[in-house]
Amino acid sequence: MAAPAAAAPVHVGGAALVAGAIWLMTPAGQRATQTMGEAMVEGGSQAVDNIRNPFADETETQASAVPTPHDGTRTEERRCDGPHRRRFQAQGYRASQEPRRVETSEAWSEPCHEPLRPVGLVKVSALLIKTQAISFQGTGLRGPCFSRMSQHVRSSPASGFGAFYTIGWGINEAGQVRRNTAASRDAPRIDLEVTAGRAFGDV
């Protein structure tokens, strides 16, 4: 994939936006973009793991290989207990931090079987791709949120996240990643919500 063209000047404030845009233009950022397609096929976490916090000197913990379902959990052998549904979502907007509003989601709706953990990791990567299609800078700004969400899905309980489960991470006005409840209502953020059934377990 060709390296992304240099971004046009963006007349908005905020060191976080500038840092995010610069990171996405570095070799590391370009590698993350180039691995998006591979992530969609191979499990969905590698490209998200390549995103680093461009706003602070914090190191994201590297996780082990993407987990795979245990033996005996093939779809045809699992009990039908659906429906299972809802979405990951990129949303929130603060004009001082990004040039345009981002509002996109990656949903699932399974009538019978819960989507397992590897599916969740693929969907986080799919949401990242959709976000980048809307705003290159907005993707860089939310980079730490994508990384936290990927780590959270990898550490999901064996039974998955149950109905009415919600969680997310946002970027506060100082450019720091925080749980969405602490980052403010309008914070650029990444959210997960489960409204029916379960999601992203390994059984």
Task: Explain what this protein looks like in three dimensions.
By secondary structure, this protein is of the alpha+beta class. The protein has one domain. Helices cover 34% and strands 18% of the residues. It is built from eight helices and seven strands. The strands form two sheets. The protein has a five-stranded antiparallel beta sheet with strand order 2-1-6-4-5. The longest helix has 18 residues, at 117-134.
Intertermini distance: 37 Å
Q: The biggest beta sheet, please?
A: 5 strands, antiparallel
Strand content: 15-25%
Number of helices: 8
Helix % is 25-40%
Number of domains: 1
Number of strands: 7
Give the CA-based shape. elongated
> What's the overall average pLDDT, rounded?
76
The sequence of SSEs as H and E is HHHHEEHHHEEEHEE
Classify the secondary structure makeup into a structural class.
Answer: alpha+beta
Uncertain segments = 1-21, 32-45, 52-73
Q: Give the spatial strand order of the biggest sheet.
A: 2-1-6-4-5
Q: Rounded to an integer, what's the Rg over CA atoms?
A: 17 Å
Produce the secondary structure layout.
Layout: H1 15-25, H2 27-34, H3 36-42, H4 46-49, E1 84-91, E2 104-110, H5 117-134, H6 136-141, H7 143-154, E3 161-162, E4 165-171, E5 177-179, H8 180-183, E6 189-196, E7 198-199
Antiparallel strand pairs: 1-2, 1-6, 3-7, 4-5, 4-6
Summarize the structure.
This protein is α+β, with helices and mostly antiparallel strands. It has one domain (about 15-55, about 80-200). The protein is built from eight helices and seven strands, in the order ααααββαααβββαββ.
